[in-house]
């Protein structure tokens, strides 16, 4: 779990640094929105993997419950942030940049999560 959190943190930090470095091409609210999306995606990834790690070795019912609650939790987290940005319209954040960053990093972190789960299953069978 620690290695996964470290990998997510490194990817999020590198992505945020890349977004901040492109600040010359993006406006300030777009940069802040994209970094917000990166952070929210990273939080969702860590909490989702924590649920999976907690269900490890407890049986199929607990595993499926962890997967379902992980999906619902991320949906609520991501939706809550995007709805809040849409309704509150804070001047410092651009919603489209946050949504694009959130979606992009969600898929990156999902690929990383699948890799870690498959590696864990492979190690458990050995």
The average pLDDT score comes to 87
Number of helices: 4
The percentage helix is over 70%
Instruction: Spell out the helices and strands N to C.
Output: HHHH
Rounded to an integer, what's the Rg over CA atoms?
Answer: 16 Å
Quaternary structure annotation: single chain
Largest sheet: none
Distance between the termini: 19 Å
Strand content: under 5%
Question: Based on DSSP secondary structure assignment, what is the total number of beta strands?
Answer: 0
Class derived from helix and strand content: mainly alpha
Low-confidence stretches: none
The number of distinct structural domains comes to: 1
Report on the structure:
It is built from four helices and no strands. It is 86% helix and 0% strand. The longest helix has 31 residues, at 95-125. It has one domain (2-125). The protein has helices spanning 2-21, 28-55, 60-88, 95-125. The two termini are 19 Å apart. The radius of gyration is 16 Å and the shape is elongated. By secondary structure, the protein is an all-alpha fold.
How would you summarize what this structure contains?
The protein contains 4 helices and no strands. The protein is mainly alpha-helical and 126 residues long. The chain is elongated and about 50 Å long.
Features:
mainly alpha, 0% strand, 4 helices, 126 residues
Architecture blueprint of SSEs:
Blueprint: H1 2-21, H2 28-55, H3 60-88, H4 95-125
Helix pairs in contact: 1-2, 1-4, 2-3, 2-4, 3-4
